[in-house]
Amino acid sequence: VQLVESGGGLVQAGGSLRLSCEASGFTFDDYAIGWFRQAPGKEREGISFINTPHNRQYYAESVKGRFTITSDNAKNTMYLQMNSLKPEDTAVYYCAAGWGISESYIYVARAYDYWGQGTQVTVSS
Fold first, then answer.
1. 3-state DSSP call for residue 63?
2. Burial class (CB in 10 A: 0-12, 13-18, 19+), 97
């Protein structure tokens, strides 16, 4: 099982980036999938998820209206489109997948089984 991320980088405030996360060894069908981020000195923050079995999406307040999560189940790949980026969005971004995660735990990192290696996103002011 593997999750491989791509798409991070350096962008100016107000700009956009799209992160990708390709999965192998399992399919998204029965999993909650999504994105966390971790800034230096801060805890890992859950920011956006798709609960695939229930076809529901979730967004943290800090990114709602700016970020969009999508998935292409045929390619076993998820995406995070990030628009109107702010310096406070600077962090390492991780994709994750977990089986049988209830709504109560959708933002909880320890509920997830598989993780990507992380990709750095830096937003300059």
1. coil
2. buried
How far is residue 39 CA from its own chain's centroid?
14
Q: Cβ of 9: how many Cβ atoms within 10 Å?
A: 13
| Structure tokens, 67 | 């970020």
Task: Return the pLDDT at 70.
Answer: 96
Question: CB neighbours (10 Å) of residue 56?
Answer: 12
Query: Using an 8 Å Cβ cutoff, are 105 and 87 in contact?
Result: no
Cα angle for residues 31, 106, 4 (degrees, 5° grid): 50
pLDDT > 90 fraction of the chain, expressed in percent and rounded: 90
pLDDT, one tens digit per residue, over 27-67 is 888 899 999 999 999 999 999 999 988 889 999 999 999 99
Count of CB atoms situated within 10 Å of the CB of 125: 9
Structure tokens at 72: 């292409």
